[in-house]
Specification:
alpha/beta; Transcription Regulator spoIIAA; 2 domains; 8-stranded mixed beta sheet; 3-stranded antiparallel beta sheet; binds S-adenosylmethionine; binds iron/sulfur cluster
C-alpha cells in the first residue's frame, strides 16, 4: 500500500530554530505521545467509515513482522494523573462481557488480516490494570492471543499490575507466569502515601508496595519492572529521592521513569505550576540515584536496567521503539500502527464500552478512527517513539521508510549535530546530555510540519482539548507510547 499524499500543511519546511524553541516552550506536550493536536494535524488523513476496513486490512497485509497489545480498561480507582483509556467504575460489571468481546475481536482480526501467517515479536497485556481481572479471564485473553499469534523465540511477554492488587491477591500474581507472562510491571509512581492520596490514587504507599514486590518475587517472573512518575506540582527533590531509594529496595530488574504528561488528565490545570527546569532537576536526580544503585541506560532512555545489555522493557515495547515495528492493538481505544496507517479502536474518545461492544457484536472490527498517513507523518511517529530510548536507529529507520535519516531530516540533523544535542554512534543517532536537557525542543525537530506549525502557533500551557469538536471530529485517545 502506498503512503497518502501529504496535505499542504505537511509540505512546508519550517525553520529548525523556531521549531526547537516552540518545542521547549510547549515542553508539556512535545514528547513521545505523537501526534499532537490531531483535530487539525492528522485530520486530512482520516478515512471515511466505509474505507476503514479495506484501508486497514491492506495496510496490515504488508506487515509480516508485528507486535500485539491487548487493552484492559478497568482499574480499582481512577487516578487523577492517568492519561489512559479507563472506564467508569460502574462499567466494571461488564468485565466478563468485555473479555468475550476481546476474544471475538481477536478472531475478527485473524479473519481480516491472517495473523497466523505473521511473525509476532512481542505481546503486552496492558491497561488500565489487566491484573484487576480474575485469573480465569486473563487466561482466556492469553489463550486467544496465543491461538492466533505464533511468537518468535525469546519473546518477553509482559503484564501490568498495581501494588494494591499484587499485595492483596498473591495467588493471582503467582498464577501469571504459568499463563506465559515472563515480565510484570508494577506502577509504584511515588512512595509517599500522602501524595498518592492527593493524586486520587488511594494506595497505602511504601508498606503496600513492599508487600507487593515480595509477592512478585515469589511468583517467579523472569523480569520485574517498577514504574515511577515525576513532574507533579510541588514534588520535592527530597521526596523524589525517597521514592527512588524505596524503588531500589523493591529489587526490580528495571525501573521506568515517566515524566508526568498533563494533557487530557484530571489534573491538567496543574501543568502551569511545573517548569521545565524543575522536571530536569528531578530527571537528573533519578539518573544519579539509580546509577549509584546499579541501574543504567543510554542517555535519555526512560527504562534503566540492572541487567547488563538488557533494555529492561518488554519485547513489545523494545521492538516498537528500536525497530519501529508495526503493532496491532486489541480492545477499547487501542492504538495500531502499520507504517501506512495509524488507527484507534472504538472507545478511545468516550472511554465507555458501548460502541466497542456493539461493533464487535455486529461482527465488525471495532475501528473508531483510521488515518492513512503520508510518509512524513509515519516517520514522525516512529522518531517520536524512538525517544523512549533516547535514540533513533538509522538502520531501522531506513528499513521502515526506504530513505536514510540524513536524507529525511537534513535540516534537523544539521541543527542537532552542530549544537551537540545528538551524536552518531555507528548508525544510531542518540541524545547527548545537552540534548536530553532540551528534549522537548529536540523531539519537535522530527515532527511533521503540520505538528511543528501547531507548536509554533500554540500558547504554552494550553492543554485542554477544543471546547467543541465538529460532529464527526477525528479523535485520538489515550496516547501512551
Ligand atoms: C497503563 S499504566 C499501568 C499501570 C497500573 N495501572 C498502575 O497504575 O500501577 C502504565 C504507567 O503509565 C504511567 N502513567 C500514567 N499516567 C501517566 C501520565 N499522565 N503521564 C505519564 N505517565 C503516566 C504510570 O507510571 C503507570 O504505571
Ligand atoms: S494509573 Fe493505572 S491504576 Fe491509575 S487509573 Fe491509570 S491505569 Fe488505572
Amino acid at each position: 500500500m502506498r503512503y497518502a499524499e501529504p496535505a499542504a500543511e505537511d509540505r512546508r519546511r519550517l525553520d529548525p530554530a523556531r521549531v526547537f524553541a516552540a518545542g521547549l516552550e510547549n515542553h508539556h506536550v512535545s514528547n513521545t505521545a505523537y501526534p499532537i493536536a490531531h483535530q487539525s494535524t492528522v485530520a486530512p488523513y482520516r478515512v471515511t467509515a466505509g474505507e476503514q476496513h479495506p484501508v486497514i486490512t491492506a495496510a496490515f497485509a504488508d506487515a509480516h513482522d508485528l507486535c500485539v497489545y491487548v487493552h484492559v480498561p478497568f482499574c480499582e480507582t481512577r487516578c487523577g494523573f492517568c492519561e489512559y483509556t479507563v472506564v467508569r467504575r460502574d462499567e466494571a460489571a461488564q468485565a466478563e462481557r468485555y473479555v468475550d468481546a476481546l476474544v471475538a475481536e481477536i478472531a475478527l482480526w485473524e479473519a481480516a488480516v491472517g495473523l497466523r501467517t505473521r511473525r509476532v515479536h512481542g505481546f503486552d497485556l496492558g491497561g488500565g490494570t489487566p491484573t484487576w481481572l480474575p485469573l480465569e479471564q486473563i487466561a482466556r485473553i492469553a489463550e486467544a492471543v496465543r491461538g492466533v499469534a505464533a511468537f518468535e523465540p525469546g519473546v518477553c511477554v509482559s503484564i501490568e499490575t498495581t501494588p494494591r492488587i499484587a499485595a492483596r491477591e498473591p495467588a493471582k500474581i503467582a498464577g501469571l507466569p504459568g499463563l506465559g507472562f515472563h515480565r510484570i510491571s508494577m506502577g509504584v509512581q511515588v512512595a509517599d502515601a500522602d501524595l498518592l492520596g492527593a493524586l486520587g490514587r488511594g494506595h497505602d504507599g511504601a508498606a503496600e508496595q513492599l508487600r507487593a514486590a515480595e509477592h512478585i518475587q515469589e511468583a517467579g517472573f523472569s523480569r520485574f519492572n517498577v514504574d515511577l512518575m515525576y513532574g507533579f506540582a510541588g514534588q520535592s527533590l527530597e521526596g523524589w529521592r525517597a521514592t527512588l531509594e524505596h524503588a531500589v529496595r523493591l529489587q526490580p530488574d528495571a525501573i521506568t521513569l515517566y515524566r508526568m504528561r498533563y494533557k487530557l488528565t484530571r489534573i491538567s490545570h496543574q501543568a502551569g505550576q511545573v517548569g521545565h527546569g524543575q522536571v530536569q532537576a528531578l530527571s537528573a536526580l533519578a539518573t544519579r540515584v539509580l546509577g549509584d544503585a546499579g541501574f543504567s541506560a543510554p542517555t535519555g532512555k526512560t527504562t534503566l536496567s540492572r541487567i547488563a545489555g538488557e533494555d529492561g522493557t518488554s519485547s513489545y515495547l523494545s521492538r516498537r521503539v528500536r525497530d519501529g515495528m508495526a503493532y496491532l492493538g486489541f480492545g477499547l481505544g487501542a492504538q495500531s500502527f502499520s507504517h501506512r496507517t495509524l488507527s484507534y479502536a472504538a472507545g478511545a474518545a468516550g472511554k465507555n464500552l458501548t460502541p466497542y461492544l456493539r461493533r464487535v457484536a455486529r461482527g465488525q472490527l471495532p475501528l473508531q478512527d483510521v488515518y492513512r498517513l503520508p510518509r512524513c507523518q509515519a516517520m514522525a511517529k516512529m522518531c517520536a517513539v524512538s525517544f523512549y530510548f533516547g535514540a533513533i536507529d538509522g538502520a531501522a529507520f531506513a528499513r521502515c521508510f526506504g530513505v536514510e535519516l540524513e536524507q529525511a531530516y537534513p535540516e534537523a540533523l544539521a541543527f542537532v549535530l552542530e549544537r551537540g544535542l545528538m551524536r552518531w554512534s555507528g548508525r544510531v543517532l542518540g541524545l547527548t546530555a545537552a540534548g536530553l536537557a532540551q528534549l522537548p525542543g529536540v523531539i519537535a525537530l522530527f515532527f511533521a510540519p503540520s505538528v511543528q506549525a501547531h507548536l509554533i502557533e500554540r500558547a504554552p500551557g494550553d492543554l485542554a482539548p477544543p471546547r467543541r469538536l465538529p460532529v464527526h471530529a477525528p479523535v485520538v485517545g489515550a496516547s501512551g507510547v
